[in-house]
Amino acid sequence: RVGVTGASEPYVYLDSSGEWIGFEPDLVHDVAARVGIDKVEFVQQDFSTLLAAVANGKYDIAAACIGVTEERKKTIDYVKDYNNGYLIFVADKDSGISSTDDLEGKRIGVNTGSVQETYVNGELSDSSAVGFPDNNTAIQALLSGSIDSVFLDTETASKYIAQYPQLAEAAKVESTAPCAWPISKNSPHLKAALDEAMEAAMAGLQNPQQLQA
């Protein structure tokens, strides 16, 4: 059982038939097959409660490009990390926002409980982090003008900018939290197996297009 959040394209999202697709499901299936697991169930849950659900054993792992932080390590473990990069502030093209300095006093949409929320609260203390259950809801709030920006990972930001021409990248910061799958501290044997399988999967991924983008 894999806990996922909705509307995190290209990482994990529903297709028109209701199937979970994207980079994360492809990688989960690949890694699971390497450890002899042939059945994977994806279950959607708001990010704000997803990590607690993993810690309590409701899910074996969570998969949604979830950042590794020392604070989170107090209650959960992680499978070997697999991705790192930049975080993007998306805003209206005519917003006048072109750097993090321009975000002072602004209302910034984030997923509740995310590393983006932590960043805004810690590094942009003059701004307000406005929590949303998923990215789609935050983007719709931006389009309606009720917030000034949405803070996203690079790939997800690129998808929304392509989808909504009135939006653009307003500012970029380097992520200090690599992506990895949260796993319960009570699952050391599963973690060890998944760590080994993840290393093999990433080593064998010669062409990123082998996994759906």
Annotation keywords:
single chain; 213 residues; alpha/beta; five-stranded mixed beta sheet; three-stranded parallel beta sheet; globular; disordered C terminus
**What is the number of strand segments?**
14
Q: Give the N-to-C terminal Cα separation.
A: 22 Å
Q: Residue share in helices?
A: 25-40%
Which geometry do the CA atoms define? globular
Radius of gyration: 17 Å
- So how many helices? 6
Please give a structural write-up:
The protein is of the alpha/beta class. Helix content is 31%, strand content 23%. It contains six helices and 14 strands. The protein has a five-stranded mixed beta sheet with strand order 10-9-11-8-12, sandwiched between helices. It has a three-stranded parallel beta sheet with strand order 4-1-5, with helices on one face. Strands 2-3 form a two-stranded antiparallel sheet. β2 and β3 form a beta hairpin. α1 crosses α6. The protein is globular, with a radius of gyration of 17 Å. The C terminus is likely disordered.
Q: Strands, helices and their partners?
A:
Layout (H helix, E strand, L loop, with lengths): L1 E3 L8 E2 L5 E2 L1 H12 L7 E3 L2 H9 L5 E2 L3 E2 L9 E2 L7 E7 L14 E5 L3 H9 L4 E5 L2 H10 L4 E5 H10 L3 E8 L4 E2 L1 E2 L4 H17 L9
Parallel strand pairs: 1-4, 1-5, 9-10, 9-11
Antiparallel strand pairs: 2-3, 6-13, 7-14, 8-11, 8-12
Helix pairs in contact: 1-6
